[in-house]
Amino acid sequence: MNDKQSELTSALLDGELDPDTQEHAISAILGSGRQELERFGRYRLIGDVMRGESNILASSMSKRVHEALIDEPVVLAPPARQPRQWLRPVAGLAVAASVATAAVLVAPQLMTQPGDQGGPVQVANVPQVTAAPVLVAAGGSASTQASSRAEPGEMRWQAMNEKLENRLNRLVIEHHEFGGRTGVNGPVPHIGLVSYGSR
Amino acid sequence: MARFRTSGWSVMVRVSRTGIVFGGLLLAVAARADAVAPYELLDRMNEAVRLLDYEGRFVVQSGDRLDAMYIVHRVTQGVEKERVVSLTGKPREIIRSDQAVACKLAGRDVHINVGLRSNGRSFSPLRGVSGSQLDASYHIEMLEPGRVAGRDSYQILIQPRDELRYGYRLLIDQVSALPLQSVMFDERERPVSKMMFVELRVDRAITPIEHDLSAMQLARADPDDYLPVERFAPPDWVFPELPPGFHLNVHRRKALGQTAGEREHFIFSDGLASVSVYVQPVGNDAGLSGVSRLGLAKAVGRIVDGYEVIVVGEVPTKTLHWFAQQIQAAP
Q1: What dotted CATH number matches B38-218?
Q2: Under a CB-based contact definition with an 8 Å cutoff, are residues B96 and B83 in contact?
Q3: Which of A123, B22, B59, B72 would give a disulfide with B55, using CB separation of 3.0 to 4.6 Å?
Q4: ipTM of predicted assembly, 2 dp
Q5: Distance between A39 CA and the closest CA of chain B, angstroms
């Protein structure tokens, strides 16, 4: 069904067509095959349910929608960022253009440097970018720090009765499940919870 | 005057040298532009843990404890299924089905079952924050690439700007973007926990979880999850001042059986760290008072106006106290 036909069907169902156009629209739907007839049926059904004219379906659908909404959290976080794919080439071009401009401006000065007799030109003392890692928690020292850490991984909630302990376990799971996973603590949010009941 | 005399040949040589140098600079700039941006990498990792099929073994360390675990994660028709099994100590297991997530903890006959009716979308707090928001709480930089579980990885350092959150050093698979190694560290840069894969397979020959029917049957929805709640009712509690960088991401209500009222659940996040605040009527059992912890998770509890407030998160205790002290009944 093309857009025009869709509009016509929609207007027909909304009672917005004059008698002549109604006939034309009905003929078009009847002559357009099974697929279009089914689409017409769906549009009609949607209209009926929305107007509450299909009691059985409306009740059933309302129940299903209600069920689907039970315990749905209200997610207040803003929508996901859309990666600006166009920015990368544009940014790359902009930086490249800046460097090219710098080259045009700086090159003549380099070529007429006082005292220069045509020997090797040292453009600048380009610092070696050796991404020296800020070693935060790796290697042997980290292990030493870990073992000397005063806060070992407890295997049970401290000073708890079993009922409260179970309740807290559930709250931690809900915290992870409904808070979402980011991957920063590993692939599974509950690793911490499960890995401490071992001994 | 001689020292300023310049022959045509030498000018040509210098022009060509300068061209080579700046050509090199241009190439370096272009290469830099193609380098992986940290936020993009975090986004990719964030999607990879939820959307990819993978299977592997990893170790988890906290303090003097070291555990080995096995994980298999599959996505079938958009639904995550997952199984995590301890390979050391008493058997423990996490099973995620399309209905619920079940945790079998050591020494417990019953497992904890949490319905996932609202988790089908695999919500992620990271997806909702901007780079500038993360920048406000963390300094993020790329370090030298590394290698974990035989796979080349990017290395990213996430340092907290204050003492209200932990930092992370991540090694992320260059191909799949899955986190291969994660170190969480405190404000003194002491490690709080470590996770590292020793073996990982991605998107091929993954063991079907559905074959283990007994495990999948454990993860079933909790009947309480189906009790109706006033979903759109505004929160009954407010937080006049939040810790810097934290924003309210989720508010939900859960019915506590037929007669015990409802529990309100607030989830705050700075994009990486999350804190949950639960508020429910004081029950018959002794509630949580003060601080308690289990592994990485900590909880702070107090009573406010006849309601029990429990704050949970994997953040410094002072952050949990902040939320616990700030909460008050809505005017």
Answers
A1: 2.50.20.10
A2: yes
A3: B72
A4: 0.81
A5: 26
